[in-house]
Design a protein that fits this description.
This protein is an alpha/beta fold and about 500 residues long. The chain contains 16 helices and 21 strands. The strands form five sheets. A seven-stranded antiparallel beta sheet has the order 13-12-1-5-3-19-20. The structure holds adenosine-5'-triphosphate (ATP), 1-O-pyrophosphono-5-O-phosphono-alpha-D-ribofuranose and nicotinic acid. 1-O-pyrophosphono-5-O-phosphono-alpha-D-ribofuranose binds next to helix 8, strand 11 and helix 13.
């Protein structure tokens, strides 16, 4: 087993074989541009929350082939030329990266990252970037759905034990926090990222004592002001809640307050209403009710609509594994080649219009209505072109082009920020709190119609007329080329 911490081999083998074939061909230093984006929104949601940039930056800044990596490659059956391996030994990322800020509300087809560099380095990093950004964006989006339903309630991330291994738990916890969760139960995530940590106790605590009451008392002695008691080990209404109330009253006599109870099974709507009544009748009006048990945004919405009296929601499995859609399906596509002193747009054709790439180096502008401050659409434009804010702007749907709208009195936000230039980071990493606040503020840019959980309106992501035309021309050119090559 390898012992060191290099991440250069965290890639698909075909990236290294393409690097090698390019090197043999003498083409490994040709410059290319790639876009990283996704094609379809997850969970039937109307938007996604971009996350994963910080992890991507860490990766690119420290990307090296270690001696162990080189040795491993040398032992592969491909028998790579030693001169190639020598070049990998000196490998550093030297490219340019433009990216959206973490926490940005994003949509299909728009580049989340635009990368320029040698084909060799851009192939190497594809897999890892898709891995980081696909997962974190997915989890941040899932968390955002839960935050929308929960409104002001407390949301606790409890997923580590059910997560797909370590990184998913840790970076997943970060993604949920930036999208609006209040705390995680994972202490390492707390220590790594500064996320607040919260927790209650498990059933084993109660089972470990001769009686539930004794267990509750012992726990309350240890944490007189932060006690949250799990009340469903034996019988929620007949035993758990009465014992919690007894301990709550004892704490009160000693000048403390029972912080909460946790319900982890049964009919959470009914039990929470009963619990609220029983706690209030005993004068424990400040005691909060925490619920957990296979929750997701649908059960949360349903429980709230049933009038459940729950203040805080502990959510694990269905959040951290993105249970109903476990992959975002992000893609990384070559969009331009640098040839004879200029960038030449490149396209990939598919019979599925969604899968036809948009050629060329591009940027993304968000169009904000000056009157109400709301986003009207995102416009993908060829790099170097800007929008004239003093003239009306016509947006049209890239597939159904008759769907048009004219916008006046707007301002634009360029969503792609410079992150790396010539392999050097030029972007100051915001703190996680800043990212969280930025994300929170992003939400007010969008009309409710795009944000609702069920059947949201499609937010316009359009191509500028020039870009649309370049795309159509390239499709036609390739179509003719293929016909000619086939002699038709
Ligand atoms: N009032 C309610 N309306 C809709 N869904 C609910 C309600 N109360 C609980 N649920 C959900 O129903 C499911 C209950 O699952 P299930 O019966 O398997 O487990 P449980 O009652 O938690 O018991 P255990 O954990 O012992 O299996 C959970 O997903 C829970 O979130
Ligand atoms: O249901 P989730 O959304 O995944 O939330 C996390 C679950 O993990 C714990 O259960 P577990 O049975 O592992 O341990 P426990 O003894 O603490 O209940 C907790 O009680 C929740 O039910
Ligand atoms: O603190 C808790 O209550 C907790 C933490 C992780 C998983 N389930 C519950």
């Amino acid at each position: 087993m390898q012992t060191d911490q290099g991440w250069a081999l965290h890639t698909d083998k075909y990236q290294i074989t393409m690097m090698y074939a390019h090197w043999k061909n003498g083409s490994h230093l040709r410059r290319k541009a790639f876009d990283l984006y996704f094609r379809k929104l997850p969970f039937g949601n109307g938007f996604a929350v971009f996350a994963g940039l910080e992890r991507a930056i860490q990766y690119l800044e420290t990307l090296r082939f270690t001696e162990e990596d080189i040795q491993y490659l040398a032992d592969q059956p491909e028998r790579y030329d030693p001169a190639f391996l020598e070049m990998l030994r000196k490998f550093r990322f030297t490219g340019d990266v433009y990216g959206m800020k973490e926490g940005t509300i994003v949509f299909p087809q728009e580049p989340l990252l635009r990368l320029e560099g040698t084909v060799m380095e851009l192939q190497l990093i594809e897999t890892a970037l898709l891995n980081f950004i696909g997962y974190q964006t997915l989890i941040a989006t899932k968390a955002a759905r839960m935050r929308m339903v929960a409104e002001e309630d407390v949301l606790l991330e409890f997923g580590t034990r059910r997560a797909q291994e370590t990184d998913a738990a840790l970076w997943g916890a970060r993604a949920t926090y930036l999208a609006g969760f209040d705390a995680t139960s994972n202490l390492k995530a707390g220590a790594m990222f500064g996320i607040p940590t919260r927790g209650t106790h498990s059933h084993s605590w109660v089972q470990d004592f001769d009686s539930e009451l004794e267990a509750f008392r012992a726990y309350a002695r240890a944490f007189p002001d932060q006690t949250v008691l799990l009340v469903d080990t034996y019988d929620t209404l007949k035993s758990g809640i009465p014992h919690a109330i007894q301990v709550g009253l004892e704490l009160k006599q000693q000048g403390h307050q029972l912080a909460g109870i946790r319900l982890d099974s049964g009919d959470l709507a009914y039990l929470s209403k009963e619990a609220r009544k029983m706690l209030d009748d005993a004068g424990l009006t400040h005691t909060q009710i925490v619920a957990s048990s296979d929750l997701d945004e649908d059960t949360l919405l349903n429980l709230r609509s049933q009038g459940a009296r729950i203040n805080a929601w502990g959510i694990g499995t269905r959040l951290i594994t993105a249970y109903d859609q476990p992959a975002l399906g992000a893609v990384y596509k070559l969009v331009a080649r640098y040839k004879d002193g200029e960038w030449v747009p490149s396209i990939k054709i598919s019979s599925n219009p969604e899968k036809v790439t948009t050629p060329g180096r591009k940027t993304v502008y968000r169009i904000i209505d000056r009157k109400n401050g709301k986003a009207r659409g995102d416009l993908i434009m060829p790099l170097g072109q800007t929008v004239n804010e003093n003239q009306p702007l016509t947006l049209f749907h890239p597939v159904h082009t008759y769907r048009k709208k004219k916008i006046r009195h707007f301002r634009t936000i360029n969503l792609l920020q410079p992150i790396f230039q010539g392999g050097k980071r030029v972007y100051d990493l915001p703190s996680l709190e800043e990212i969280r606040t930025y994300h929170h503020n992003q939400r007010s840019l969008f009309w409710e119609e795009y944000m609702r959980l069920l059947n949201p309106e499609e937010y316009p992501v359009d191509l500028s007329p020039d870009l649309w035309q370049t795309k159509q021309d390239l499709i036609q050119t390739i179509y003719h080329q293929v016909r000619e090559e086939n002699g038709k």
